Amino acid sequence: MENNSWEEVPVQNFEHIYSDGGAVDIPFKDDRDKIFALNRIAILGHIYGVQVVIAEVIDTHLHTVIHGPKDACVKFRNELRRQMICHFIFTGRKEQLGEGFFLDSVAIGTRTSLMNHIIYVLRQVLDTGFPFLPTDYRFGPGNIFFAQPSTIGLSRSAEGVREVGRMGVREKWRILETRLPIPDDWLVAEDGLILPCCYMDYNLVNGLFRTPRCFIAFQHIKRDDEESIRQVCHRRSLEALTLNDLREKARVVCRDRFKKELSMASVPERVQVASLLVKNRMAFLSASLAKAVFLKYDDLALFLAK
User: Which of 31, 225, 253, 303 is deepest in the core (most CB within 10 A)?
Assistant: First the structure.
């Protein structure tokens, strides 16, 4: 393709996988939690033959863009969720799971969308008030995109960095908390973090953006594009809620608003409950929401439209 053209190009087998930050009370409270989550993304990507394009873990969310066959991506997502739940249970914080640790995914179908999703993940840390550039954040890709080999080499040669192949079985378990197979040439920092340059596909990202100028330009992603990605991710998280999940949310809102049980509420009160759930981005108008508040979908849609 000529550099002066920018026709939209379809892409296949790319997914943006993310957690629902509203379902768990600050799941990644400290560095150990962030290291565990990021390392699991790396290890499971290797096991299931999935390319990790980019990944970032902040206090309330994890995000990663991956590339691989659909069935491999599904296995990756399901196992990542299972292992995160096991991590909460093993560390004695089962109650912190709340409604559960949800992971969902959005299929990415075009080159521009892929580039926007990569930058969206890179910039997630800015939502936490991080006072530096995202490339300075430890629990993301760091400075590996459009960086000179010598720059990436500095992290490889940093004090305390070791090769996995030089660790014994017990030591690997103590540092990485896993017996799963890991490439011997992967490098691990002193605190147990697998270096992002070992598994995040920065060559793919560099080839996708083609020039540093383009990469920097995409970091100025329009607010409406960013909000669109955010809304899609949020909607997919809401779609994962079951009828029981929605009904429990409705019960809580009804008790708080009207001091009564949902089953005892009047029709106008139940409509108000549904309206509050939608307004507070806890649900969206759907047949499941209507059933959750004991109404027919057509009636609820009509009431909410008024």
Answer: 253
Per-residue tokens: 275: 């309206």
CA distances from 248 to 10, 104, 139, 286 (A): 41, 21, 34, 16
CB-neighbour burial class of residue 34 (10 A; exposed 0-12, middle 13-18, buried 19+): buried
Q: What is the dihedral of CA 288, 294, 296, 299, to 10 degrees?
A: -110
pLDDT tens per residue across span 124-174:
888 788 889 899 999 999 999 999 888 887 777 778 889 999 988 888 888
In three-state form (DSSP H/G/I as H, E/B as E, the rest C), the secondary structure along the chain is CCCCCCCCCEEEEEEEEEECCCCCCCCCCCHHHHHHHHHHHHHHHHHCCCEEEEEEECCCCEEEEEECCHHHHHHHHHHHHHHHHHHHHHCCCHHHHCCCCCEEEEEEEEHHHHHHHHHHHHHHHHHHCCCCCHHHCCCCCCCCCCCCHHHHHHHHCCCCCEEHHHCCHHHHHHHHCCCCCCCCCCEECCCCCECHHHCECHHHHHHHHCCHHHHHHHCCCCHHHHHHHHHHHHHHHHHCCCHHHHHHHHHHHHHHHHCCCHHHCCHHHHHHHHHHHHHCCCCCCCHHHHHHCCCCHHHHHHHHHC
Q: What is the pTM of this model?
A: 0.73
Paired residues of 188 in beta bridges: 162, 194
Read off the pLDDT of each residue in 55-62 and give the average, rounded to a whole number.
Answer: 92
pLDDT digits (tens, 9 = 90+) for 180-194: 889 999 999 999 999
pLDDT tens digits for range 12-45: 999 999 987 655 667 888 899 999 999 999 999 9
CATH number for the domain whose boundaries are 10-237: 3.30.70.1290
Give the whole-angstrom CA distance, residue 120 versus residue 132. Answer: 16
